[in-house]
Every structure is written in structure tokens, then in C-alpha cells.
Amino acid sequence: MLQTRVIPPAENAYQYPLLIKSLLLSGVRYERNREIVYRDKVRYTYPTLIERVARLANVLSAAGVKAGDTVGVMDWDSHRYLECMFAIPMLGAVLQTINIRLSPEQITYTMNHAGAKFVLCNSEFIPVFNGIAAHLHSVQKTILLTDGEEKTADLFNLVGEYESLLAAASPCYDFQDFDENSVATTFYTSGTTGNPKGVYFTHRQLVLHTLAVSTTLGSLDGNRIMGNSDVYMPITPMFHVHAWGMPFAATMLGLKQVYPGRYDPEFLVELWKKEKVTFSHCVPTILQMVLNAKAAQGVDFKGWKLIIGGSALNRSLFLNAKERGMHLTTAYGMSETGPIISGAYLNDGDLAGTEDQRTASLLKAGVPVPLVQARIIDAEGKSLPHDGHAQGELVLRAPWLTMAYFNEPEKSAELWEGGWLHTGDVAAIGTGGAIEIRDRIKDVIKTGGEWISSLELEDLISRHPAVREVAVVGIPDERWGETPFALVVLRDGESLDAASLQMHMLPFVDQGRINKWGIPRSIALVSEIPKTSVGKLDKKVIRLQIAQWQTEGSSVISSL
Prior knowledge:
Number of strands: 26
CATH class of the largest domain: Alpha Beta
Radius of gyration: 24 Å
Shape: globular
């Protein structure tokens, strides 16, 4: 490291720490009367939010929460979750956002591994919590979260019901300063193999991530998508990477915020109408569910801007949403990255180009947001050119990337091999810096000595008018090593077989988009494609299903 000149500060100079409390106190300065809304049940303004955060801090302190303790939350997206996202870290404690869609065994593992001492539990999850309580090693007390009138529950060492406790607590709390490198949050990846891995983020990291996200979404004219006059509604669970960090940004800027609770597509559409939502984010599967909802039929969604991430957005879904009035854009990130790393951006060349060129840019992972460094490397760790053609593993540096997997030194060393965070994604980077994710390394189809992108095949297959949803995986093949296999969900009243799909794909072979070995020779028509707990395609389960169908000679498979 360079030996630079460092001048000591004045004796009385204040060393300002980057703490989450600074984000909370900013929004009220701009729009005191903007609302925080929970379903059709609760609404209040920003001064009340600040007051409720203080009340919650007093409740937690009285229950015994101390700096450094881990406090778990089991809830749907709510105003309560927002309050926890601030109050718990502002005490110096660590917020564990518990993925309630994991199996009971995995939830038990994550809570024990994180050392959760206190748990705030929605009444809906009492059966799950009680079922695992005997196996939890560190939990000392619980607080009940409820939308109804019940104030008590058969819950381990129950302190009380959330609203009753807040009502009796003081609306003032003197939040102290502390080291900005203190851990603020932790959660666990929903990996498809082995136990979930714990990632964690400090106050400094989350503040910097919030500033970068706000700058990217609101200051870049090539794809400006969020300002503080927008009405924000997350459709990404708050237990999943802090709902992509957007609640922190929305609070800092003073947006009206709408929290929908459990995701029901029909209710989401009604809430969108009622609250005049203009900005959201979700994975492609949730977007598809919203568009297919009965309440959405015939609705013009003009004015609704959505960031799509978590998995690839195919052109067919993009165009369908656009026809319905939505403005879609993409972003890229992962649990380990906090998550936002890059976002779609239309530069001057894109804006002067054709509609098809603009669509192609909006479907890419986009340009790295401020403070992010990205490069691609080969199997030996050597950098590859950023020419839009060379492809290799995407590796990253940014000030908010998780520094390690919690208590997993070997996996942490693999994650940060060579001083760069390894994403496990195959990507190309263009001359202008735009990232294009080609596939997960583990999902690339290796056939006949070539690598074929399952994401590319999914995009091309999705353009068939009969296809509503598709997933492509590689399956073992004695001759070629692997061969593509497609799972397809059809639109109502449509039909498709392997021969018809081949006819659809041949023009893309002629165009040079894929080679002929990239056309799936077998497909399965299904009513639903397996997903992970956060709505991504679960390709591990898909491969197991295909193997079982092949063994059984299932009629769901159509082959050439």
C-alpha cells in the first residue's frame, strides 16, 4: 500500500461514523407527511416511524437485547419489518432476517449458526417456531407479531405482543454512536446444496450501498427509475438481502412506502391500484404471477417501474410487461454483494439506436454502479478482455461486499480467492463496461466440447407464442457429454412438442445465435417449474425430476 501523507484531525473534530440511524433521520427532513402503509391495516407518517423505532428500541432493551446480540425476525413484508431494520442495528445488535420459506431443519440451522438470542415471530409462524424450539440452542425470549386482536400465544419465553409493548414504551431513545464497522445484519443464502451460508454486512457497508443505489436509480438520466416522489412497494421479501436494500434507500429519501405482507398476486394488483404504486422490484416469476392475476386482466399498468433481478429476464416477458404499460429494467447482484452491483443503463448510443437495441441493453445485467469494480477471468485467474465476446467468471470488488461467510473459513477463502469476490457466474463485459450474464458456471451446458448458455436457450424458447415459462438444464449424454432439456409451462389453450420447438429454434441456428446442438431434443410439459425459496429456478430439483421421469418412462416427455 502506498505511504501517503495523512494529516491528523483537529483535536475536537467529530469523527462521523456511517451508521444506519443517519438513513432513518434523513427522510423526515424532506417529506414529513409521506406515509408508511401496511396492506389495508396500518398507515402512519415519517415522524411516527421515527417514534416507533425508538419505542421498539426501548422494548428490546427492556427485554435484555444488548450490543452484539443477534435478533431474528420471522415476518412477512410489513411496517414492523421496516422498524426492525432500523431499531435492531441502531442498538448495536445484529438483525437476522430469517428466511421463513426454508425447511424447518434449515431454519433451525440458520438460527443456531447465527446464535439468535431473541426472536420476533409473526403469529402465522408459531407452529413452525414451536416445532423447532426444542432444537434452538441460543434463543432466550420471543415477541409476538400479529395483525389481529390476539395478544398472547403459546410461544417460548414470550415477552409480549408487539403493538402492546410499543404502546407502553417511551417514544424517545438516545441512540449512541459506535464503530461503523460493527455488524448490522446477517442472513443465509438459499443455496441448493449443503447448508445455507451466512453472510453479514456492517453499518458502513449498508450506508454506502444505500448511497450507491440511490445515485444509480435517481441520477442517471439514461434509465432514471426512482425519485422521492415515487410510491414504493417491494415485491422481493424483506428477509432476502434486505429487500435488495431498497427500504433503506426509500426511507432515506422520504418516499411513500407500501408493504404488502404475504404476496398474493390478486391483492398486489389491488394494492397497486389503491396506493398508486410507481416503483417496485421482483424476480421474473413474481412478475409473471402478477401479470397472470385475474385482477390484472385488462389493466393498464402505465407508470409502474420495476427492477427485475434474481434471475434472467427473458425478452418475451419483458415485451409482455411493456405491452401492459410497465417500464422494466434489470439489475444484478447476489446475497454476498448486498446485493446491487450493476443496473441497466441506456447510453447516448442506445438512445439514438433502434428499439430492439434499447431492449437488448435493458435486458443485460447492466453497468456497474458507482464504486464497483468488475472483471472477468479464465480458469487460471487471468483477466480476459472487456470486448463483449470473451467470457469468463465474473469477479468483483466493492466497499459493501460481505467480507466472509460467517464461521466458514474454507468457503470464505474460496469466495475471496485472489482478493476478488467470485460470483460463480459466467459473463462477458462490453467495451463500455456493461455486464452480460451468460450463465451460472454450474448451469452452463457442456456439449460436444462447447459451452451453451441455458439462459440464452431459455430466452429463445420463451419467444414461442405457446410458452409461458421455461427452464433449460443440461442432462447427461453418452455421446455429447450433456444435452439440453427444457421444462415448459404452456399458455392456456396452447400445445407444443419437441418437433415444434425444433422448428421454432432453427432460425436462431441460421442467425448464428446458437449451434444446432443447442436445440433441446427433449422437452417436458409441466404445470409448474420448481423454484427456490426466493423464486429462482431450482435447477438442482429440475435435474432430479428429469432423471426420475426418464427412469419411469414418463409421458410428460416429448422427444425427437
